[in-house]
């Protein structure tokens, strides 16, 4: 009996050539409608699945290969006499090679004008059934889901007449990853469609974007995966114009920088070190903004990651060029700016689209043995929640400054304190185990500029010691969530020093 190959693919790239090789190796080719046509057009003999099953493709292709005359051939063990006898009894031919790829569900739902009907029709049923059957029976069947593997299969068949067991197992594992990812994508789409907020299972899928040289430290192995159809405003969607490959730490820091710069509509520049901002500046143009971000902390910016929300021009590039930086991310670079910055061999220059940066994804954080899923902290200041707790109201300039501080403090690791003026940060205290410790760091870093500056705190003051430290340093206004049982003590302390203190009613922990 002739060996049989079953080919049914949506992505028809290379399939005719693959079929031709199989034919020349003595295989009888069996195919579904469109695939059969593509193969026949290339002059390769091919028989239709309907000729095998004696049943037409029905329901506009919803049922074509779902038939025991096909699945019996995929699932029978070739070395099992009972299975062989059953195949003979029912006149089923065994299938040695299966080549299937699926309806383009992902590409379909990526279309902006996709209808639910269109999405549903692109859920492949028969394909995954054939893939899973063949992969289950991989001891006997060679199954190819990825056109990249056509060559390996043909080479091995030509050299040894068989595909070796290790390759067959790898191909089968690839199939199960493929069908699992395919179903995860459908599950995500359907869950959204059904407006289910919290599901009993989380089935997300990611694809390898980059094999990383190492993780947080050189002894840790690491990879970078991207979410298919994920947010476009993402480091996973960046185009690298220049410089060394991104590292694990670069990616985390770049993500942190993007989350901060996203807070601003006007020209803004953000410098990040170890996922905390070390300088944030806003200005009349991007040069002005970057100059302020740089001046905010000209020491910590060394080796930092910079995100800017306007095109980098020559003037800004010249200033950026003076500093040792790891990465610069912007919507674009002018040709002149690019030329200036490309002078630095290792400096990574990235662009990402700043448009369409709406995020509906969940932030996933892994813990050993589990995963935490939460919304991104996209909450801004809501007028309705804001109260001025002190006798003195902030001045107009203080308000501007408090709003800037509040935008930044959200992105600083808790306990977080930001000291700033109306267009730049001056001191940032991050990740201390007590709030007054962060305040002292921020105040010290601000130096003389603390005089007349404002302070933002990501969470309420459990005691009045931070207010006291701020007032003594020369801070004139504070923004914080409020809500401590000792709020009154902090208010009294602020009143005593003539400070204005605003409660936001919302906290911004970040761990
Ligand atoms: N329903 C079935 O029996 C069935 N059998 C194979 N398919 C899919 O049909 C596609 C190929 O179709 P065609 O050869 O007609 O272009 C493949 O992506 C394959 O996964 C099916 N379609 C979807 O469910």
Automatic annotation (TrEMBL):
Record pathway: Purine metabolism; IMP biosynthesis via de novo pathway; 5-formamido-1-(5-phospho-D-ribosyl)imidazole-4-carboxamide from 5-amino-1-(5-phospho-D-ribosyl)imidazole-4-carboxamide (10-formyl THF route): step 1/1; Purine metabolism; IMP biosynthesis via de novo pathway; IMP from 5-formamido-1-(5-phospho-D-ribosyl)imidazole-4-carboxamide: step 1/1
GO MF, one example: IMP cyclohydrolase activity
Residue stretches spanning the membrane: none
Residues of the MGS-like domain: 1-145
InterPro entries in the record: AICAR_Tfase_dup_dom_sf, Cytidine_deaminase-like, MGS-like_dom, MGS-like_dom_sf, PurH-like
UniProt-listed Enzyme Commission number(s): 2.1.2.3, 3.5.4.10
Entry GO terms, CC: cytosol
Organism superkingdom: Bacteria
Catalytic activity: (6R)-10-formyltetrahydrofolate + 5-amino-1-(5-phospho-beta-D-ribosyl)imidazole-4-carboxamide = 5-formamido-1-(5-phospho-D-ribosyl)imidazole-4-carboxamide + (6S)-5,6,7,8-tetrahydrofolate; IMP + H2O = 5-formamido-1-(5-phospho-D-ribosyl)imidazole-4-carboxamide
Keywords associated with the record: Hydrolase, Multifunctional enzyme, Purine biosynthesis, Transferase
Domain remark text: The IMP cyclohydrolase activity resides in the N-terminal region.
Family: Belongs to the PurH family.
Entries under HAMAP family matching the protein: PurH
Matching NCBIfam families: PRK00881.1, purH
Protein name, as recorded: Bifunctional purine biosynthesis protein PurH
Species of origin: Cytobacillus kochii
Name of the gene encoding the protein in the UniProt record: purH
């Amino acid at each position: 009996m002739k060996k049989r190959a079953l080919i049914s693919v949506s992505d028809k790239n290379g399939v005719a050539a693959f079929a031709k090789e199989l034919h020349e190796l003595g295989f009888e080719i069996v195919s579904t409608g469109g695939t059969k046509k593509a193969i026949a057009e290339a002059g390769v003999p091919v028989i239709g699945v309907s000729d095998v099953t004696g049943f037409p493709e029905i329901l506009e292709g919803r049922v074509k290969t779902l038939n025991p005359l096909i699945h019996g051939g995929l699932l029978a063990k070739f070395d099992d006499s009972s299975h062989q006898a059953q195949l003979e009894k029912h006149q089923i031919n065994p299938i040695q090679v299966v080549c299937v790829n699926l309806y383009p569900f992902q590409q379909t739902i990526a279309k902006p004008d996709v209808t639910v009907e269109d999405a549903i029709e692109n859920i492949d049923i028969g394909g995954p059934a054939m893939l899973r059957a063949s992969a289950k029976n991989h001891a006997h069947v060679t199954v190819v889901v990825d056109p990249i593997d056509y060559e390996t299969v043909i080479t091995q068949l030509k050299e040894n007449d068989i595909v070796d067991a290790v390759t067959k197992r790898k191909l089968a594992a690839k199939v199960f990853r493929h069908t699992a990812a395919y179903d995860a994508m459908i599950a995500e789409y359907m869950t959204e469609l059904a407006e289910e907020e919290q599901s009993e299972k989380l089935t997300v899928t990611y694809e390898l974007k980059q094999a990383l040289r190492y993780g947080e430290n050189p002894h840790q192995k690491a990879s970078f995966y991207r979410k298919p159809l994920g947010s476009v405003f993402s480091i996973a969607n960046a185009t690298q114009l220049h410089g060394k490959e991104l590292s694990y730490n670069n990616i985390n820091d770049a993500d942190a920088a993007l989350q901060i710069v996203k807070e601003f509509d006007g020209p803004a520049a953000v410098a990040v070190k170890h996922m905390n901002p070390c300088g944030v500046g806003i200005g009349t143009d991007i040069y002005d903004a970057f100059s302020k971000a740089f001046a905010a902390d000209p020491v910590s910016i060394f080796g930092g990651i910079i995100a800017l929300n306007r095109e980098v021009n020559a003037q800004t590039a010249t200033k950026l060029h003076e500093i040792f930086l790891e990465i610069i991310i912007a919507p674009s670079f002018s040709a002149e700016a690019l030329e200036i910055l490309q002078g630095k061999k290792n400096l990574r220059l990235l662009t990402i689209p700043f448009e369409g940066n709406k995020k509906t994804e969940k932030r996933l954080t892994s813990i050993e043995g589990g995963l935490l899923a939460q919304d991104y902290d996209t909450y801004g200041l809501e007028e309705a929640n804001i109260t001025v707790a002190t006798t003195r109201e902030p001045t107009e300039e203080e308000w501007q400054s408090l709003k800037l501080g509040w935008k930044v403090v959200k992105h600083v690791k808790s306990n977080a304190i930001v000291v700033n003026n109306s267009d730049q940060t001056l001191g940032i205290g991050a990740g201390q185990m007590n709030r007054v410790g962060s305040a002292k760091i921020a105040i010290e870093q601000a130096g003389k500029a603390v005089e007349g500056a404002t302070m933002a705190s990501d969470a309420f003051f459990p005691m009045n010691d931070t207010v006291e430290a701020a007032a003594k340093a020369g801070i004139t206004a504070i923004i914080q969530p409020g809500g401590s049982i000792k709020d009154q003590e902090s208010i009294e302390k602020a009143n005593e020093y003539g400070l204005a203190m605003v409660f936001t009613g919302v906290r911004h922990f970040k761990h």
